[in-house]
Design a protein that fits this description.
Helix content is 57%, strand content 11%. It is of the alpha+beta class and 537 residues long. A hairpin with a 3-residue loop joins strand 8 and strand 9.
Length: 537
């Protein structure tokens, strides 16, 4: 006679809460990784480092919100990067024609809604595969970018400058009197508003419950939802409309972040978005996952990039390797949950669980797999600082020795009357260059003692004056610009930029690749490169 037994108390509790396993794994892994970074790198012990994970990715937060809606319904949206790029180009083009930002923004958002509506209708009523329909949408949006402009459109607008550079200090952590301490930007605030709205819609409305009912089950859940009388078609179309809206908003935020519109903006961004959703524990088959998990996925991708930057021994391309490995890990966790669900359903239908031969606790399949996953994560984090550089030496190592920065020489140029002094040092070619620009247009290029490239040339003085006015408009001489100079990676550059204007002189240090550097810093260095004659940039 076959006997029935109930699972142990802890296993029963875990079974009831199994839907939280993916997001719990994501949150736990993020916490472990962040703590490992705090212990390994002293620079990560600043509270601002955590908030910089948000500050570097407000546009990714927006696209992830929209993508989560689509994936929950069992679809996928590859058009997010194309709509983002088109949003930057439309914004920049309209501003160039004299529109105000507040007039341009609704046009961009309407564009995103139209794209999402068109793709949703094709997928829902014409039964086009989501992959194909949204891929076509991505290429269409990219193509329209180049119809509007085949070159980058720079944005010079006071509203953009204010939105990008104004800090929102974190209450309780920052000093509002001195205007110092941890902060986020207006861009992050806008992205978090969209995230909170998404949380409400997805988890607390009938629309959200219908979206969950549609996804998963290899299409069977959608059939069941139709038989139940749920508005399946309307919900699927609206999911793509929301995604299009979020992607267009991401385009607006991105244009503010980089101060330009370009058809190349966000290239490959759709894959980063999908990766963040998967790492966040949302099942690609649909019907399972939480928007909060997707946000943690965004923070995880930002954290990986920051850790590689602080490590200093690994190329930035390692970020793709880690993100890919995490995707495989969480897809495996999702598969485990799906198998678990099937087992629980089968047990419920049979009225219990058939008794198997007694096994000790550590031989239970789930516990064994979970233990193996935990060991892999711990070993991976522990070996991040020492193991990878030893097994995979940095491919960016070259037969040259990086020289130290030359602050005294840069200061001497400023004392001599140079209004802008830019020093760049490092990289795979061990560059050591100082460019000194004077008010009368004289430019001194110093590439190191005895270098044959050293020369003195001239540019138009009015261009130098215009550049100084632009830099001052960026609020260079305020607390908005500060040193962000952590340990650089082998392929990265250290920068020192000194500006003298209206009796004020200020020097700001930076390292490329870190999330702490203000976007406007790179706008300034890019403008300076464009100002220089050919051969000096």
């Amino acid at each position: 006679m076959t006997s029935i037994t109930a699972p142990s108390t802890w296993m029963a509790a875990l079974t009831r809460k199994r839907k939280y396993l993916p997001i719990g794994s994501t949150a736990g892994l993020f916490l472990l990784t962040y703590l490992a970074g705090v212990f390994a790198f002293e620079a990560m012990r600043s509270g601002q480092v955590f908030f910089n994970l948000f500050n570097s990715a407000p546009f990714l937060i927006c696209t992830v919100v929209g993508e989560t809606f689509v994936v929950i319904t069992g679809g996928i949206d590859l058009s997010v990067s194309g709509i983002l790029a088109l949003g930057t180009v439309i914004s920049a083009s309209l501003l160039q024609q004299g529109w105000s930002p507040w007039q341009a923004f609704p046009v961009v958002l309407a564009m995103g809604v139209v794209f999402g509506l068109a793709m949703g209708l094709f997928i829902t009523y014409l039964k086009v595969q989501p992959f194909i329909a949204t891929l076509a949408g991505m290429w269409l949006a990219r193509g329209l970018c180049y119809v509007i402009s085949d070159a980058e459109i720079r944005i010079h607008d006071h509203t953009y400058t204010t939105l990008n550079q104004t800090k929102i200090l974190i209450p309780g952590l920052a000093d509002p009197v001195a205007h110092t301490g941890p902060y986020i930007t207006y861009l992050v605030a806008a992205a978090l508003v969209i995230f909170i709205a998404g949380l409400f819609i997805l988890h607390l409305t009938r629309f959200g419950r219908t979206a969950y009912a549609i996804g998963g089950g290899a299409g069977a859940n959608e059939v069941s939802a139709r038989l139940m009388g749920l508005p399946v078609n309307r919900t699927k179309v609206m999911a793509y409309v929301i995604s299009g809206f979020c992607s267009a908003l991401a385009g607006i935020l991105y244009s503010i972040y980089v101060n330009s519109g370009n058809g190349k903006n966000g290239d490959g961004f759709e894959l980063t978005t999908i990766a963040a959703v998967v790492i966040g524990g949302v099942a690609l088959t649909g019907g399972e996952g939480y928007l909060a998990g997707s946000l943690i996925g965004v923070l995880m991708t930002s954290l990986i990039q920051s850790l590689i930057q602080y490590n200093g021994n690994l190329s930035s391309y390692w970020a793709y390797i880690f993100i890919g490995a995490l995707m495989l890990l969480f897809i495996g966790i999702q598969s485990l949950v799906v198998a678990w669900n099937a087992e629980v359903i089968g047990r419920a239908r049979s009225g219990g669980k058939l008794r198997k031969a007694p096994v000790v606790w550590y031989k239970r399949g789930f516990v064994r797999k979970a233990a193996i996953a935990f060991v892999v994560v711990v070993v991976g984090i522990g070996g991040f600082e020492y193991g990878l550089p030893a097994v995979f030496p940095s491919t960016t190592t070259v037969a040259c020795t990086s020289q130290a920065m030359r602050p005294d020489q840069a200061k001497s140029y400023s004392t001599d009357g140079a209004v802008i002094v830019l020093e760049r040092n490092g990289g795979t070619g061990c560059i050591e260059e100082i460019i000194a620009i004077y008010a009368d247009g004289k430019v001194i290029a110093d590439y190191g003692t005895g270098n044959s490239r050293n020369k003195t040339v001239n540019v138009q003085a009015d261009k130098v004056s215009a550049e100084l006015v632009k830099i001052d408009g960026y609020r260079w001489f305020t607390a908005d610009f500060f040193d962000a100079n952590p340990t650089r990676c082998a392929a990265c550059y250290s920068y020192s930029l000194t500006v003298t204007y209206n009796g004020q002189t200020k020097t700001v240090l930076a390292v490329d690749g870190t999330t702490a550097v203000q976007a406007k810093y790179w706008n300034i260095t890019g403008d300076l490169v464009a100002l220089l004659p050919a051969g000096l940039e």
